[in-house]
Amino acid sequence: MKKQGEAKEGAKRGRGRPRGATEQGLETRQHLYETSLRLIAARGFDETTLRDIAQEAGVSVGLLYRYFPSKRAIVLALYEELSARYAEAAVKMGVGPWRERFLFALRTSLEVLGPHREPLTALVPVLVGGKEEGLFSPGTAFSRLRVQGAFVDAALGATDAPGGTTGPALGRVLYMVHLAVVLWWLLDKSPRQRATDGLIRLLERLLLPASLALKVPGAGAFVRTADALFRQGLLGEPAAPGDAGEEPAS
Amino acid sequence: MKKQGEAKEGAKRGRGRPRGATEQGLETRQHLYETSLRLIAARGFDETTLRDIAQEAGVSVGLLYRYFPSKRAIVLALYEELSARYAEAAVKMGVGPWRERFLFALRTSLEVLGPHREPLTALVPVLVGGKEEGLFSPGTAFSRLRVQGAFVDAALGATDAPGGTTGPALGRVLYMVHLAVVLWWLLDKSPRQRATDGLIRLLERLLLPASLALKVPGAGAFVRTADALFRQGLLGEPAAPGDAGEEPAS
To answer: What's domain B18-69's superfamily in CATH?
Structure first.
């Protein structure tokens, strides 16, 4: 068994480890990552090349390539980082009805994304329209599911959690509502995105009637249909028996 | 005064008219326009160059440039064409409550856009994220206002039109809802965009309770606030006194 000091020394020298796992490698990676995001924020995603990034960071294209072989890899690293931070912040969700837990999950998302608004705004065309790096692409599923999980948890762990399959369906529908608010926030031209605060206040006012309506017979089917449409339409999942985009009878 | 035959002959030869106004010019323009949209649909907006378009159309870059000096000009021509067709189709709106007139306006929009779904899907990054050619850019205001006008008319001409400034505000909010449905339709991965039909059926079920709720005191203020937030947040208009993103007292 190695002594701790030895293991640390080994890690520092990067013996047998992939590039980027040493302390120096991590620093280089972070430098390249931040330079990339700064350039993308300033010039736009399509207008930024790997060559530009290498030049700005003062490294060779070859070295950049070993850390980030494509602009896609940079975007995926950003998703990975933000979704991990979000998952960490979202565990502080309190006990309460789903409408309160949802508002916490939504506000926490905007807080985590806040410092990165500039590169994210530059990435809107990619987030919404990108076939490979888009929000609904299979390649970004890991980060998406991590964030979506917090919204499903907001519904399932609520004091008024709907029963059966309506609970997770509500969580996924709330995740979609959250995405719409985030898109609005990224496009928001008002000073300090003040209009987004207003939008969340309006949403807040709709949540109480919505949570009352969810207790009415048939409302669960409405939520399950909305969820099925989201999965079929935006994620491209095949229709499951009974949710073929049709409203169930209940 | 010229005889009609003379005037027609003059038009044919393009005497003193800008290029594109002769019959042959119009044909060339149409050929270049259709070739552009086909290439953009196949390759994506950013991946298509004016050089590619000229080559595909079998003309010189110089000739293409005289009709379409930039890719932006092509996108604006598409907006112009589709919004004109839409305005024409939307005049057939029948008498009835605003929820029915809105559904007509929404379905008509999807019918007019239908045959152009492929280039429009390729343009989603531009429509949503583009600073100059985007849906909310000042440069596209003419086409936007033409379509928005039909939705404002759907509210104002309804048998249950809300009074005062709530009527036009409702129309603009409905226009926004329509844009969200169009975006969903462009991203819809389900066969024959079946999930969009389902989404419209869900929306239809929400419209009756929504139109009843609009008769409750205070609901008008809610709609006016939503409209003010849309104008400030997405269009970047300055806050007017009384709609500063805050909810009016009423």
So the answer is: Homeodomain-like (1.10.10.60)
Q: How close B2 gets to chain A, by Cα (Å)?
A: 53
- How many beta-carbon pairs under 8 angstroms link A with B? 115
Please give the CATH number for the structural domain made up of B80-250: 1.10.357.10
Q: What is the CATH number of domain A75-250?
A: 1.10.357.10
Question: In chain A, where are the structural domains located?
Answer: 16-69, 75-250
Q: How far apart are CA A143 and CA A9, in angstroms?
A: 33
For residue A177, CA distances in Å to A8, A148, B150, B180, B182 come to 46, 11, 27, 12, 16
ipTM above 0.90, yes or no: no
Q: Is A200 exposed, middle or buried (0-12, 13-18, 19+ CB in 10 A)?
A: middle
Q: Are the CB atoms for A14 and A6 separated by under 8 Å?
A: no
Please list every residue in chain B whose beta carbon sits closer than 8 Å to the beta carbon of residue A245. 190, 194-195, 197-198
Distance between CA atoms of residues A155 and B202, nearest Å? 21
Q: Digits of tens for pLDDT over chain B (250 positions)?
A: 444 444 444 444 444 445 546 888 889 999 999 999 999 999 988 889 999 999 999 999 999 999 999 888 898 899 999 999 999 999 999 999 999 999 999 999 999 999 999 999 988 888 887 777 888 888 888 899 999 999 999 999 999 999 999 999 999 999 999 999 999 999 999 999 999 999 999 999 999 999 999 999 889 999 999 999 999 999 989 887 665 444 444 4
Give chain A positions within 8 Å (CB) of B229: 195, 198-199, 202
Q: Domain A16-69: which topology?
A: Arc Repressor Mutant, subunit A (1.10.10)
Task: Please write down the HEC assignment for all residues of chain B.
Answer: CCCHHHHHHHHHHCCCCCCCCCHHHHHHHHHHHHHHHHHHHHHCCCCCCHHHHHHHHCCCHHHHHHHCCCHHHHHHHHHHHHHHHHHHHHCCCCCCCHHHHHHHHHHHHHHHHHHHHHHHHHCHHHHHHCCCCCCCCHHHHHHHHHHHHHHHHHHHCCCCCCCCCHHHHHHHHHHHHHHHHHHHHHHCCCHHHHHHHHHHHHHHHHHHHHHHHCCCCCHHHHHHHHHHHHHHHCCCCCCCCCCCCCCCCC
Residue A158 is classified by DSSP as S
The predicted-structure confidence for A194-246, as pLDDT tens digits, reads as follows 999 999 999 999 999 999 999 998 899 999 999 999 999 999 898 876 654 44
Residue in B193, B239, B245 nearest the CB of A197: B245
* Residue A180 DSSP class: H
* Closest chain A C-alpha to B232 CA, distance in angstroms: 6
State the Rg of chain B over Cα: 21
